[in-house]
Specification:
heterodimer, A: 249 residues, alpha/beta, Rossmann fold, 2 domains, six-stranded mixed β-sheet, four-stranded antiparallel β-sheet, 39% helix, globular, B: 289 residues, alpha+beta, 4 strands, 70% helix, 7% strand, rod-shaped, binds adenosine-5'-triphosphate, binds magnesium ion
Chain lengths: 249, 289
């Protein structure tokens, strides 16, 4: 089922004449894991900020569930429909991990009622990404990069959104936690029917993707071109793309 | 159903505890501004009240005195003096006689209200007041008492206006700094989908609480300070020694100051809202990353 759609999207930053994204069209289905790959500065994070409703494309449209984002309340869209795991975490550093989660639940007007219930749900969620209660009660300021990243992941899941968007979600994690997080993300797509979009440089992440999207200098690279250009994916990714292509044929 | 906005207030309360240093500084500034306002206002209000009182007191005291201290003026007899006192314009049928040198006397009557001076004068003249006498209030006494108070009133009013303008300027500055300092936090909350008006409400609640605390402290401090300041001001204004004026923080003053405090909080709120409206979450977050 189509969940998100980009229709001829172009974007350039305010005050800049050069387009960072050029005529991108793509569709994202529920229940699948997508990875977005490409060299640094290719426009991956920019693409995510358009999908997550943090920014509006200059030309073209983004559709969520058939509705044009331009016509939706983007605050509500961010609060309820998408969960974003940011490259730079973007947590409230002076608040505890668990407070970051419960606040997100409150903003999204979560169905979980009552303070205690929300807090328990937050602890459970944090526990799922490997944060114990003692750590969860500490301020973000006093957490390691990897721990902060996991809190960011928990926050993105806290309001049970249809779309989960992640910018380098495993960049600061050790191999074990990485596979744990990837398992969670895959399960969210395959079992809970979420649409999971992950920007990554990691082979381990592309390995779990149902589909891979390549971006090169603001252009969407798919098919032959993507497969042939080994500059923006490694051997693994190459193999993976091949498999997808073969399956499609 | 529980109020869906309650978390905004809860978050504001938590923020107050988290940023003690900044809040304390902000509190000190607001405290200083409100305290000066308390002082200016209470001095102003007291002088207005005293002027009013003096106006009635001196304005209702009517003197009948010889125009000049000439010997050839006919005397006012005791019967006549008593006759004048039988007037509906007077508070009571009382007449005081005061010697004003060289055998002349001054008759003093007390009007019900200063407005009936002219009517009383006509009445007395109709009753046969000899020519050469004037019927008037004690101008000199009035001026001696009321003029310094008028001066005090004007000074305190000017001072009050300056303090208010300065206070608003300080509040605007504080809010701008505060919002800028908290840009990242605001960006994160906005990225999480918090609406601008809720964010603004949170910031406003914070400033409201700080202002309320300052308001109470300022009332105490201002009440203590305004007496000595007014004493010093009066001493400078009055050439002759006068009895000290009792400056007090009346309920009316408290209400006015509360209004001023709310004005400051609202100014801060409006500034915060207009600032937040300008920020897009993506821009704020990118600046940091
Ligand atoms: N605020 C901005 N103003 C102007 N140009 C910007 C701005 N932010 C990013 N860019 C430019 O847009 C391009 C795409 O940036 P983007 O952050 O999307 O890259 P990316 O693919 O996520 O890179 P990375 O893998 O390093 O995270 C880059 O060339 C970058 O310099
Ligand atoms: Mg990026």
């Amino acid at each position: 089922m189509k969940c998100l759609e980009l229709a001829d999207v172009s974007y350039r930053y305010e005050g800049s004449t050069e387009y960072v994204l050029k005529n991108i069209s793509a569709a994202f289905d529920s229940g699948k894991v997508y990875t977005v790959v490409g060299e640094s500065g290719a426009g991956k994070s920019t693409l995510l900020s358009l999908i997550s409703g943090l920014d509006v494309c200059k030309e073209g449209d983004v559709y969520y569930d058939g509705k044009n984002l331009r016509e939706l309340d983007r605050d509500d869209y961010r609060a309820k429909c998408v969960g974003v795991i940011f490259q730079g975490y973007n947590l409230l550093i002076n608040s505890t991990a668990v407070y970051n989660i419960t606040l997100s639940m409150n903003i999204s007007e979560s169905e979980i009622m009552g303070r205690r219930a929300k807090k328990e749900a937050a602890f459970a969620l944090l526990n799922k990404v490997g944060i114990d209660r003692e750590t969860a009660d500490r301020k973000i300021l006093y957490l390691s990069g990897g721990e902060q990243q996991r809190v960011g992941i928990a926050r993105a899941l806290s309001h049970n959104p249809d779309v989960i968007i992640a910018d380098e979600p495993t960049g600061n994690l050790d191999a074990e936690t990485e596979s744990e997080v990837l398992k969670i993300l895959t399960r969210l797509a395959h079992e809970d029917g979420k649409c999971v979009i992950i920007v990554t440089h990691s082979e381990n992440v592309t390995a779990i993707a149902d589909e891979i999207i390549g971006i090169h200098a603001g252009n969407l690279i798919a098919g032959e071109k993507y497969r042939e250009n080994s500059a923006f994916h490694g051997e693994n990714g190459h193999e993976r793309t091949k498999t997808i292509r073969e399956n499609e044929q | 159903m529980k109020n869906k906005n309650f978390y905004v207030i809860e978050n504001a309360l938590l923020n107050l505890g988290k940023n003690k240093g900044r809040n304390f500084l902000q509190g000190v500034m607001i405290f200083a501004v409100i305290t000066t306002t308390v002082i200016a206002l209470s001095i102003h209000n007291t002088s207005v009240a005293i002027i009013g009182e003096y106006k009635t007191r001196f304005g209702s005291e009517v003197n009948i005195v010889p125009e000049t201290l000439a010997d050839n003026l006919p005397d006012i007899t005791a019967e006549q003096a008593l006759l004048y006192s039988q007037s509906e314009y007077l508070r009571d049928a009382q007449v005081d006689e005061v010697k004003i040198g060289s055998g002349a006397i001054k008759l003093v009557y007390y009007l019900k209200s200063p407005e009936s001076l002219d009517a009383f004068r006509t009445e007395v003249q109709d009753k046969g007041l000899p020519a050469g006498y004037i019927v008037d209030i004690d101008k000199a006494g009035y001026d001696r008492m009321v003029m310094p108070m008028e001066g005090l009133k004007d000074i305190s009013l000017t001072f009050l206006l300056i303090v208010l303008a300065l206070g608003c300027a300080i509040m605007i500055l504080l809010s701008i700094i505060s919002v800028r300092e908290r840009k990242y936090e605001i960006g994160v909350l906005r990225a999480m989908g918090m609406k601008k008006q809720k964010l603004a409400m949170g910031l406003w609640v914070e400033i409201l609480i700080i202002t309320s605390v300052c308001f109470i402290l300022s009332l105490i401090a201002g009440g203590l300070l305004s007496q000595s300041i007014s004493d010093a001001l009066l001493a400078g204004l009055m050439n002759t020694a006068t009895e000290p004026v009792d400056i007090s923080v009346s309920p009316q003053t408290v209400l006015q100051i509360f209004g001023v405090a709310m004005l400051f909080a609202s100014v801060a709120g409006i500034i915060s809202v207009s600032k937040i409206t300008k920020y897009e979450p993506i821009k704020i977050l990118m600046e940091r990353n």
